[in-house]
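Record passed on here:
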Amino acid sequence: QVQLVESGGGLVQAGGSLRLSCAASGRTFIRYVMGWFRQAPGREREFVAAINWSGGSTYYADSVKGRFTISRDNAKNTVYLQMNSLKPEDTAVYYCAAALRYSDYEGGYNYWGQGTQVSVSS
């Protein structure tokens, strides 16, 4: 069992930065692929980024590539999403999730956090 709690969301101006954190509990955290998804009101939940168990492989949606960076610190049981050059279209609730295998589909993830709101103005 994995429990996930996101933090770090907030309101920021376009062009600004935020760093999201996802704190995980569970003895098997290190072996999970970790992903970030986002969902705006009335829209589908979409894949943002994922990172494998060792942190050696990362994956990004084209819409965030070059602006967002996913990382993990297994010693702290935490995954991060550094978001730079934020745009209004990045506004959404951001969720972290854990999977046994890499996936860019929400159905591939077994555990989910409650989400954190990111709002980008201008």
Remarks:
- The chain has a mean pLDDT of 94.
